[in-house]
UniProtKB/TrEMBL annotation:
Domain FAD dependent oxidoreductase, chain residue ranges per copy: 27-354
GO cellular component, one term: cytoplasm
InterPro entries per the UniProt record, alphabetical: FAD-dep_OxRdtase, FAD/NAD-bd_sf
Pfam families in the record: DAO
Protein name: FAD dependent oxidoreductase domain-containing protein
C-alpha cells in the first residue's frame, strides 16, 4: 500500500515548535501500532518531546484490522460503551490527520444488520423503540426488499453512525512521518535494557522521565505489566471479490460482516480464536468465512479471495482498555487493551491518558488499571 506523502513539515502542524526528540525526549513510547502512533501524535500536538520505539516487523492488529466503527454490536445488540463520546472525537481526529497528511482515512457508510432468528428480531424491535438508541438505529424492516441478495426471514434494521478507518494506511503514514522527523526507531524494544535510575528511566544511552507501553498482544513479554488480564484473540478476515454481489456501498452484518471498498472488493470478517495466537492465517478460518458468506446469500455466489489478513486483538477480560500508571514503578505507564474497537477508542483515550499524566486529570475508572490492584 503506497503511503501518501505529507508536504507540510511536522514541526509546522501545531502552535508549538517541537524540538527534535533526540535532544531531550521526556517520554518513551514502546510500540508503534495504533495505540503508540495515536499517543505519539497527541504528544506532538501538545508540543511535548517524545521518542517511539517499535518494530514494524512485529505482528500488529492494526496493520490488518478493518477499522470498523459501529455503535451497535454483539449478540445482544447493545450500544457500544461510551460511543457518544468516542465517535465525534474520532471523526474529528481522523479528519485532522487526513488534512495534515493529504490522505483519506475515515469512510462513513450506511449499514444494515439482519436478524438471524425470532429472538434477534424481538431484541432489535426493543432496541428501535428505546430512546437511548434514537441516534443510531433507523427502524425495523419486517419485509425484505425484493432486490436483497441476502437471506432475510426475520427482518433487518439500519444502523447510523457507522464508518471504517483505513488503519493500515494510518499506521504506515504515521510511522513514515515519525521516522523522517527522527521520532521513531524501527527496531525491537529490549525490556531487559530498560533500567531505573534516580531521575527516571534509562534505555541504551538515553534518559526518560516516563515510559508508556503500547505493545498490544505482546504485553505478555512485558516484565512490569504482564500480570494484567489481557486475553489476546486471533482474528482473520478475507479480502474478496464477487461479481454477482452488489453491496451498494453498505456494510452488511449477517452473522459475519461484509465491508465494501470503493474498488468493488470487500472484506468478510471476522473470526475469533483465543487458542491459536500465531500470526499466520489458517485454512480453518478461510473455510469458516467462506461458509458464512454462502450461508448469508440467497443464491450461491462465486467468490475470489484476494488476501487473508490475520492479527491478534489485544482484548481484556472485562472488555475495557488498560490505561494508567504502574502501582509501584514510578514513571511507567500503559496504554493497551483496545480490542477490536481501537479505531473509535484510541483518539479519546490517548488524550485522556496524556491529560492524566501531564494535568493530573482522573482517568475513567472503567479504564484505569487501578481496578486490578
Amino acid at each position: 500500500m503506497k503511503v501518501a506523502r505529507c508536504l507540510i513539515p511536522l514541526f509546522l502542524l501545531h502552535s508549538h515548535n517541537l524540538q527534535p526528540t533526540t535532544h531531550n525526549p521526556k517520554t518513551l513510547i514502546v510500540g508503534a501500532g495504533l495505540a503508540g502512533c495515536t499517543l505519539a501524535w497527541r504528544l506532538h500536538r501538545a508540543g511535548l518531546a517524545f521518542q517511539v520505539i517499535g518494530s514494524s516487523t512485529m505482528p500488529s492488529a492494526a496493520k490488518v484490522a478493518a477499522g470498523i466503527i459501529n455503535p451497535v454490536t454483539g449478540r445482544w445488540m447493545t450500544k457500544s460503551w461510551r460511543f457518544d463520546d468516542f465517535a465525534p472525537e474520532a471523526a474529528n481526529y481522523y479528519a485532522e490527520i487526513e488534512q495534515m497528511f493529504s490522505i483519506r482515512l475515515y469512510h462513513p457508510l450506511p449499514a444494515v444488520r439482519f436478524c438471524l432468528n425470532a429472538d434477534d428480531a424481538k431484541r432489535a424491535k426493543r432496541r428501535c423503540r428505546n430512546p437511548r438508541y434514537d441516534n443510531v438505529l433507523d427502524g425495523f424492516e419486517e419485509v425484505p426488499s425484493e432486490n436483497c441478495d441476502f437471506e432475510n426471514p426475520h427482518g433487518s434494521f439500519r444502523i447510523e453512525g457507522v464508518a471504517y478507518v483505513d488503519l493500515p494506511l494510518y499506521i504506515q503514514s504515521m510511522r513514515a512521518r515519525l521516522l523522517a522527523e527522527g521520532h521513531y526507531e524501527d527496531t525491537v524494544f529490549e525490556h531487559q535494557a530498560l533500567k531505573q535510575n534516580e531521575s527516571g528511566w534509562f534505555y541504551k544511552g538515553q534518559g526518560y522521565e516516563r515510559v508508556i507501553f503500547c505493545e498490544g498482544a505482546a504485553l505478555k513479554e512485558n516484565p512490569w505489566f504482564n500480570d494484567l488480564p489481557l486475553t489476546p484473540a486471533k482474528g482473520e478476515t478475507l479480502l474478496c471479490r464477487s461479481d454477482g454481489l452488489d453491496l451498494h456501498g453498505e456494510l452488511h452484518h449477517h452473522g459475519k460482516w461484509l465491508l465494501p471498498y470503493p474498488d468493488g472488493s470487500f472484506r468478510i470478517g471476522a473470526t475469533y480464536d483465543e487458542s491459536d495466537l500465531t500470526p499466520e492465517s489458517t485454512e480453518a478460518a478461510r473455510e469458516e468465512l467462506c461458509e458464512a458468506f454462502q450461508a448469508m446469500t440467497r443464491r450461491p455466489q462465486a467468490l475470489t479471495i484476494l488476501d487473508q489478513p490475520a492479527g491478534l486483538r489485544p482484548s481484556t477480560t472485562d472488555a475495557r482498555p488498560f490505561l494508567g500508571a504502574h502501582p509501584r514503578k514510578r514513571g511507567l505507564y500503559i496504554f493497551n487493551g483496545l480490542g477490536s474497537k481501537g479505531a473509535s477508542l484510541s483518539p479519546t483515550l490517548s488524550r485522556e491518558l496524556i491529560e492524566y499524566i501531564h494535568e493530573g486529570k482522573a482517568l475513567d475508572p472503567d479504564t484505569d488499571i487501578k481496578r486490578f490492584f
